[in-house]
Amino acid sequence: MTESRPALVVHLATGGEPLVFALEPETDLVEFQKRLRLQLEHGSVDAVKTKEGTTVFVHYGKVAAAYVEDLQRKGKVFGLH
User: Fold this and answer.
1) From CA 77, how far away is CA 81, in angstroms rounded?
2) Whole-model pTM above 0.90?
3) Under DSSP, is residue 81 helix (H, G, I), strand (E, B) or coil?
């Protein structure tokens, strides 16, 4: 069985292509998705740790939709090894 590659997919309210951030493997996805729901409801800013070890700050007040996707089944994505 192949290893999953979870990523945060963010669709900005202004449109355009979605932003895709590969999440670090140690991320607790259940807890992350609970926190994601709250961030979207309140339009807050949250720090997201990426697979590459960087931290991205997302202002959910400017986001139309955000969700966690398994990129293993999506194919090649920029920045994913």
Assistant:
1) 9
2) no
3) coil
